[in-house]
Write a structure and sequence with these properties.
Elements (H helix, E strand, L loop, with lengths): L15 E2 L10 H13 L13 H14 L7 E4 L2 H10 L8 E5 L8 H10 L2 E5 L7 H12 L4 E7 L11 H11 L2 E5 L11 H4 L3 E5 L11 E5 L49 H15 L1 H21 L15 E4 L7 H11 L1 E2 L1 E3 L2 E4 L7 H16 L1
Helix pairs in contact: 1-8, 2-8, 9-11, 10-11
Length: 386
């Protein structure tokens, strides 16, 4: 059973940081490693040829273990979710009349690339909005499955909705897309690292993950899995290290038409980031040591009593099993709970959450305790009385 890991972070006393879905705090060990690696740039003669390649391989191996990919060669290094999705969008060939299915209120980076290619091809986007009544999770999943039909070219969505933590039934959606011959593209930024994800089981055509949230990594570095559908694709940039035989510096001007195999073609230029790569590798190593299942179990355990308290106050929370433990939304009537008043109360108490649409997004991690959530609950009660 995983215990609170707050001692591994630099979180000020009196701060209840329940906002990992916005940005994770950095592990102390990862922060120190980043400082050490940054200093190394002052001594460039210590950076050898293998330093351009071996750290990349280690990071890909770690990520492959985290999301259960048999072949780390299917992992690319990306600077952002939008970059990873742009690689996908460049290699989609839509036909007029086809459609792309997305979940309503999806994060913009997982909408804009599909909007562009749909316009260019004379295709369309079908947005499946959240239902207005009933079980949000069950009804939304049912509507998404209904939208997947013979007109669908691809479904682009998340494992977990970024604003309210709703869990989508990817196994059922994958089965339906396979029947229709459609691609399944997943933005795993708000789930991978805190909620188990099995690539071999879900079989997405691409899985894109930014590293600065639940991977506990630095900003501007992430990872992408690209399946066989993209093995012959064209990347969005042409850089030297993604070409065949780039490991041999003596022959770099023997220009190559061939890319590195599989996902090797999709990594960003200057992927051998001598500071950020070791930091993200170390962060994922800590996640593997804790175990993603144990992280989710811990977050679920500390959030369950809080969710019960919210329901007793008339605040809607999806039932356990239909929502995540690490990210969930509180839906409230603005007439009973003034958002501006609540924001001021939370700021005064140094309680950090996010407001997304008509929900309060709560995102605890292993550095939180039940007390952090109790403090949030007490503030909600005071704001309701006001």
């Amino acid at each position: 059973m995983l215990s609170c890991q707050k001692h591994l972070f630099s979180i000020d006393p009196g701060v209840s940081y329940l906002n990992c879905a916005y940005m994770s705090p950095q592990l102390n060990a990862v922060e120190q490693l980043g400082i050490e690696m940054m200093k190394r740039k002052s001594r460039p003669w210590t950076i050898q040829v293998e330093d351009f390649f071996e750290p990349c391989r280690r990071l890909k191996d770690q990520f492959a273990r985290l999301v259960r990919i048999d072949d780390p060669g299917r992992v690319a290094l990306i600077p952002s979710a939008s970059y990873g999705l742009a690689n996908v969008a460049r290699n989609i060939r839509l036909k007029p009349g086809q459609k792309i299915v997305v979940a309503g209120d999806q994060f913009p980076s997982n909408y804009y690339p599909w909007q562009r290619i749909a316009r260019e091809a004379g295709a369309r986007i079908e947005i499946v909005p959240p239902p207005q009544s009933g079980s949000l999770t069950d009804a939304w999943n049912a509507e998404l499955l209904k939208a997947v039909d013979e007109e669908v070219a691809l479904v682009a969505m998340a494992n977990v909705h970024w604003a309210n933590g709703i869990r989508f039934d990817l196994e059922a959606i994958r089965e339906k897309t396979a029947q229709c011959g459609a691609l399944l593209i997943i933005d795993g930024t708000q789930s991978v690292g805190a909620l188990p994800f099995d690539v071999d089981k879900i079989r997405p055509d691409a899985l894109i993950v930014a590293g600065y949230k639940w991977l506990l990594g630095p900003y501007s570095l992430g990872l992408g899995y690209y399946g066989p559908a993209f093995d012959q694709g064209i990347p969005i940039e042409e850089n030297w290290i993604n070409r065949k035989n780039s490991e041999d510096f003596r022959r770099l001007v023997d220009y190559q038409d061939e890319y590195q195999p599989k996902a090797g073609r999709y990594s960003i230029g200057e992927q051998s980031n001598f500071v950020l790569l070791p930091m993200l590798t170390a962060a994922i190593g800590q996640l593997l040591e804790w175990g993603v299942e144990q992280i989710q179990e811990y977050c679920t355990g500390i959030s369950a009593p809080f969710a019960d308290d919210c329901r007793s106050m008339g605040i809607e929370v999806e039932p356990e099993g239909l929502r995540c433990g690490h990210l969930f939304g509180l839906r409230f009537d603005p007439e009973n709970l003034n958002p501006d008043t609540l924001k001021a109360e939370l700021a005064g108490q140094q309680i950090h959450v996010s407001f997304r649409g008509d929900s309060i997004r709560v995102a605890p991690h292993v550095y939180n305790t039940e007390e952090d959530l109790s403090r949030l609950g007490d503030t909600l009660k005071r704001s309701l009385k006001k």
